[in-house]
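In the current project phase, the collection of sequences with tokenised folds has grown. A representative record is quoted in full directly below:
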Amino acid sequence: MKSRQQFSLQKNNSFAVYATTPIIYYPNSEQDLQLLAAVTSEPFYILGAGSNTLFVEGVTPVIIKPEFLGIHVNETEEYYQVNAACGENWHDLVCFCIDKGINGLENLALIPGSVGAAPVQNIGAYGVEIADFIESVTWFYFAKNKSQQLTQAQCQFDYRDSIFKNALKNKGIITDITLRFPKNWQPKLNYQGLNTLPKNSHARVIMDTVIAIRNAKLPDPKVIPNAGSFFKNPVVSAEQFLLLKSNHPEIAAYQQDNGTVKLAAGWLIERAGLKGYQLNGAAVHNKQALVLTNIDSACGADIKNLALHVQQTVLALFAIMLQPEVRMLGEQGEVTLGAIN
């Protein structure tokens, strides 16, 4: 199994912050994973594309970066079944499916990251989540030193959440996922930006529209280092929403099926006067307040401190505690916002 010692991770995170790991492993088979049993008894972190990770210290734990590759398609009269390895690029998988006439993922185009990381976060955009299509996830369980299949229900998906962030956190690795796409596909065009498209729009038109919107709103991390949306959109009770709306009639919100209301975190941050705010080389993006950026060689702690300032400011104004989407990593493992000074 390939590995590197004292390895710089600056090119392996979309914030482009400096950090070094004592050793990084690149498993690409179940046999490789079995060799890592001893490694996982000490602090470690599983790194995909690095598009949702912020290194908040200059040193990280041991890094495991899976390199499983491959995409396979099966077809029945009623649906397509797509199996994709964890090391594949997520957007490339979306494009692969659309090119093959397999519709469903078009709303999730241009989300950065790897296939293996997608179920962990239950990535979503424009009214669609990966959980909508998951049939099963192959999970290598470190304690059992072998793989097992988890069904969609066993993954316990929720908004930007899954069992992999909770009960199974740091207990294994997703090696591949199987997605199921009904052939009687119907476009999802409810969200702003897509709701002006014709109801019979082709999936490729929807994908191209999503890409154009994201490119217009979000900075390219190769130009301005960032990890996309830094915070989750908060979900509040109907009662709390009515109180907020009485004070802020123009508040951006989306009614949920269960009666709760999802708020736009970017709107809250912008209304708090933080759009374009800068702190020690880190900044709130001047076009999309939900995005934190590294504009001038900021270190991970600088970006974390900016995130904490945003969180505290929004809490003081709206009594809403924003929760990060981005995972923050210190030398001993993951940390919560504000845990490192």
User: Anything to note?
Assistant: The chain has a mean pLDDT of 95. The two ends are 37 Å apart (CA to CA). The chain has three domains: 2-64, 71-211, 222-335.
